[in-house]
Amino acid sequence: MESLHNTEWDVLIAGTGLPQSLLALALSRSGKRVLHVDKNDYYGGPQAVLSTQEAEAWVMNTNAGTSLFSDAALSIPTPNPSHGSPKLSFPRAYSLALAPQLIYTQSGLLSYLLSSKVYRQLEFLAMGSWWIYSPQALNLEAPSGSPPSPGQLIRIPATREDVAFSDTGIDLRSKRAVMKVLRFVMDYENQAEVWQPYSSKPLSDLLTHCLKLPSSLHSLFLALTLTLDKPQRTTTSYALPRIARHLRSMGRLGAGFSAVIPKWGGMSELTQVACRAGAVGGGVYVLGKGITTLSTEAESTSVLLGNHDTIRTKWIVGAPDDLGPCTGCPVSSSVAAEITSRSIAIVSSSLESLFPTTFEGSPKPAGAVVVFPVGSLGQSQHLQDNPVYLLVHSSDTGECPVGQSIIYGFCCGESQGLLESAIATLLTAVNEPSTPHILWSLQFKQHHPTDSNQATSQNFAEATQVLSFPPPSSDLVFDDSILDSVKSVWERITESDADRGDFLVFGERGALGEEYDEA
Amino acid sequence: MSDGATPLPKPSSSVKLVLLGEAAVGKAPNMTQSSLVMRFVNNDFQDNKEPTIGAAFLTQKCTLPTRTIKFEIWDTAGQERFASLAPMYYRNAQAALVVYDITKPASLIKAQHWVAELQRQASPGIVIALVGNKLDLVASAGSDGEEVEGEDARGVPAAQARSYAEEEGLLFFETSAKTGERVAEVFTAIAGAIPETQLKGPRGGQRVEERRVE
Ligand SMILES: Nc1nc2c(ncn2[C@@H]2O[C@H](COP(=O)(O)OP(=O)(O)O)[C@@H](O)[C@H]2O)c(=O)[nH]1
After folding, report:
1. Which atom of ligand 1 is nearest to the CA of B177?
2. Could you give the CA distance from residue B130 to residue B169 in angstroms, rounded to a whole number?
3. Site from A258, A512, A515, A516 to mutate, B interface, most B CB atoms within 10 angstroms
4. Taxonomically, which superkingdom (chain B) (predicted)?
5. Is residue A221's pLDDT more than 80?
6. Domains contained in chain A, CATH given
7. What are phi and psi of A425, to 5 degrees?
8. Prediction ipTM score
9. What's the pTM value of the predicted model, to 2 decimals?
């Protein structure tokens, strides 16, 4: 293997998570000498994609070390003998995403993927319906003392037409109330006088007092915030922009969807494409080698990578997870970390009914969101005081074989039991001819410090600056603030380059041979 | 092939082709004129067009009697050097060119490693061509690449590589990127070997490029 010694690098990027990879892309035409390493032998760090076999190794590593993730456990139920139902396929048939985030169509990320020309190497699929689980029918007209009907999945209408014309299980009177809220949120900036007084109060207060929405329907709007927090903690000022983001993204890139997901395992694909752009631009890529130590002698700082390679560099950039030895503070010790319980389940059914095409001419959705509002999983022995979110991906995502699907579960706190009962409830509620079952599942916890969102920096001797990205949040949505922190790091590194151009805006490469001439 | 008059509409499909092989065997598009890809891409253009470093992939059409195939030629961008080739590199690749240097036996070993890697990571139907390059360095090679008796720089007998290729179901050629010998044939053969059923229009899926982001 070649050696990395004897090069004076401009930038050492540690870790191939999303912010680092986007930085590599941003620097790919800067002429800087970039060395991009990852302590793992795969791309993506906390946004990686795993085959079922790689997941086994990931579980062992996760439990052995201190990282953003902990308490990983696999469970593979003994195969159901019922004949004809799909079996677990070979390991590489699966691309399970550690970061199955959805990207709203108004996200700045999509514009940057276009302006940086890497979108040609990516495929995006539409997220389809948002479902909400209700243990009883949502009918306002139903007499309050009537016996509980079996639970059902209600499709959340996200446009006024949808509310008016779709059969979503919402009665007429409720539809009018929902319509009113939709109109309000679409225009909330101009109606500050209405919601300002509720700014730091729960969204529910606004919905009840100002918009007269019956409380049984609050969950429809809370679900659109995609927040893992309790409703009492979901303030109006936090929720309104998030609901508006959903509504306004609708139809932007095509009828019937508001968000997209990258094919082949979520954000991982993005990290790989961005890193490739870094390599095409001359960056050197080394997997399986992280920062071991940083030592400062006289004026200069040297970095030991793995066990053998000592290098010098002007900048070191990474996420806290990758910079441990530089900053001297492992992630786990950073103030109060919140925990999200997560799970990934391979299901023996395509769960077709969750992916209806709701608008004429809209692409076939490959993903769905299923929300279990607080209290909706009441029958289970676990008290449910946080909402549970399930992201369901069809085989169109390339994450599993045809005839199967993947369910990604999220819930705040120590909630593995709730995730399990949410999945079990979903599999019953979908009403498939033969009840789908779980072929394979992975549970784990994700830790995320509650403090800073900012990129931080530290000086080492004169010669080396260490910049740290914030650790990934547990948001279900791609967080545009990542773009801001990558941009600020890029600005600092390229500060003195007169011709650095605009962030992530690249001209066409004078391609050889044929031009890219796709119409 | 030029961007002049619109050609007669012929079914045209994009094919992703990935390049693999040891360093300096003569494959990569971004360094030298004497590389297989530069030969293929530039042959019918101005010969001294400056190679551009940093395109994500190069494209070149290959016209067969019945159809036109547009190769998207991807190189590893050096990511293979420290075993850091990403799965996305193999993704959807319908063809692979695995190149070795016929003067260097070690480069064939490396090529065999890449063939194994492709069989593990790429789609099952991928068309793989094994190409022994630098044929011009081998004195008095027969026109079909068969070696003749005598002392020359050849380190890998054609027969040895060919029988390996046959075993693994690979296309096999010996070429010279320097003289251009048999380079076009390699690409034409790959184009011809891609099953009709594998061909589709420009790659499918819900792609952002097809839409406008304001
Ligand atoms: N004699 C000869 N030299 C070649 C041929 N193909 C490539 N080379 C030379 O081999 C060297 C390595 O080529 P390069 O394209 O950089 O190899 P890569 O690392 O596989 O991309 C360069 O000096 C080329 O000029 C060939 O067919 N014959």
Report:
1. 27
2. 10
3. A512
4. Eukaryota
5. yes
6. 8-51+266-334+452-518 (3.50.50.60), 63-93+124-157+257-262+336-450 (3.30.519), 159-249 (1.10.405.10)
7. -65, -45
8. 0.82
9. 0.89
